[in-house]
Amino acid sequence: MAERFPRPVFLDTTVVSNFASTDGIGFLTTLLDSPVVVPAVREEIERGERAGHEYLGAAVDALGESLPVREVPSEADDSDIRDRLDAGEAESILGVLAHGGTVATDDLAARRVAESREIPVTGSVGLLVLGVERRHIDSETADSWLDRWRKHRGYYAPVESVAELLDDDQ
């Protein structure tokens, strides 16, 4: 099936963390043809697991295997991006600038930077919608994950239900 987003899809820490908290790392790695993370995201996920966020264990286990780590060339440095964003978001955007693809982020500042540079953007909710459209999960599961992110992770979503974003035939 054709990829909706240009490949690879650079996942930032929040997106990886959200899906890890609902046992959805396998979902991400089967849904997307080319999901990747950058070294800064790997470090943030590993640091989170060491800090006691046990749910990140599945993400740590996937790093390098089903969730490859894509290096960002040093010449891809853009101090404006690094000054405006946290390390994971900045490096994810720099990864797209260096390699092409899409950035998956829920961070508003990162989304604005990506859009200003005409980088394709999606986020956790967009990936849930894609999963329902491709029948990897049903809308009830997507909504339960979204609800869990809200209640346990303080996640903000612009919709109450993934169903609001689906075509009527989904």
Describe the structure.
The chain has 170 residues and is mainly alpha-helical. It is 51% helix and 6% strand. It is built from nine helices and four strands. It has helices at residues 13-20, 25-31, 39-50, 57-62, 79-84, 87-99, 108-116, 124-133, 139-153, and strands at 9-11, 35-36, 102-104, 121-122. A four-stranded parallel beta sheet has the order 2-1-3-4. The mean pLDDT is 93.
Give the biggest sheet.
4 strands, parallel
What is the strand content?
5-15%
The order of strands across the largest sheet is: 2-1-3-4
Counted by DSSP, the helix tally is 9
Short overview:
The protein is mostly helical and 170 residues long. The protein has 9 helices and 4 strands, in the order E-H-H-E-H-H-H-H-E-H-E-H-H.
